[in-house]
Amino acid sequence: MMIPISVVIPVKNEEKNLPRSLDLLKEFSEIIVVDSGSTDKTKEIAEKWGARFINFEWNGKFPKKRNWVLRNERLKNDWVLFLDADELPSKEFIEEIKERVGREDYDGYWITFINYFMGNQLKHGDKFRKLPLFKVSKGEYEKIEEDSWSHLDMEIHEHPIIEGNVGSIKAPIIHNDYRGLEHYIQKHNAYSSWEARRYLKLKEEGFDQLNKRQRLKYKLIEMGVMPAAYFIGSFFFKAGFLDGRTGYDFARFKANYFLQIQSKIKEFQK
Question: pTM higher than 0.85 for the full model?
Fold first, then answer.
């Protein structure tokens, strides 16, 4: 029996990560690769593995890539799982969701990720989890008004809004990007620009619609202490130091990400 979940993989130039990902998803009944104009062998790899390939051209307005798929593509299954090409389902995860999707008590699931940084696993520090698995009829990523300033064609910091009960999957997904540190830095440079512009937009409109964790993040950014707060919280209070040099490097890079946001806010204000 194929797993009755449609897996959607948003990509751009993912020839290094995509073969590994598609090989682990062979039990799922539908795989859709949604591409943003890749110039490498992403399309050939997707078609070789039998995935449905869609070329997405963003017009700069809502919806972005994930919501566009939900609104414009007819999926074979009632459930959808959004995965990046560098997110690899473990065997335990696949076995657990086989049992979970047949139940009617939940409409979506939080998933925990095991992160790798510079080739090494992070066992401590700030844990990473998302809500990428839900019933198609019950969820959509939140809409952020960004037509005039966003340059990212995919939902990055937007969270799914689920109508119904949300549970948790215990088994993890492995997050391991094989494109290296240079790509990590480029990616977070783009993300920090988005975060800075979103902060300025929220300052005009208000922060009331955000959850408690998001409001705290932007409050610490406004105070200029978010880089230090993240490093101290993740490396010391959440025991990131137990991961040794890798834990230290990751906490420093993440703290620098928040420093970029704070610095860009000042620059954009000028």
Answer: yes
